[in-house]
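Tokens as discussed.
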């Protein structure tokens, strides 16, 4: 793919979570305190660009995974861990999983992730 890796081929299309361009993330900026750990997190936009690259490369499942990951960018780490634990065998019943799916949709607009959890609830 001519646009992969994005950080090298299309850095002008990437931004940090707080807004500055990806190109401003340098060692010097970190040392000066202009870049924090929060700026090193992936953005939903970057994951969507990665999903588009995956689709163009004929990898639809990878693209779907990247789009689900993009939905989870806004979800706090503690909630992601709780969802992960609930999805482990024997940890949550159907009603608990359905409630988690509904919450993901309502609070974060994470429709793809909610659909995956609903699928797990049916199994």
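Sequence:
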């Amino acid at each position: 793919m001519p646009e992969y890796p994005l950080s090298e081929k299309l850095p002008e299309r990437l931004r940090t979570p707080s807004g500055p361009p990806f190109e401003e993330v340098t060692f010097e900026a970190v040392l000066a305190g202009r870049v924090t750990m929060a700026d090193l997190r992936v953005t939903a936009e970057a994951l969507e660009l990665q999903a588009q690259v995956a689709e163009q490369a004929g990898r639809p499942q990878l693209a779907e995974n990247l789009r689900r990951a993009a939905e989870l960018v806004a979800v706090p780490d503690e909630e992601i861990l709780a969802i992960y634990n609930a999805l482990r065998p024997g940890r949550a019943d159907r009603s608990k999983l359905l409630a988690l799916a509904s919450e993901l949709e309502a609070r974060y607009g994470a429709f793809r992730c909610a659909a995956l959890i609903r699928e797990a609830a049916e199994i």
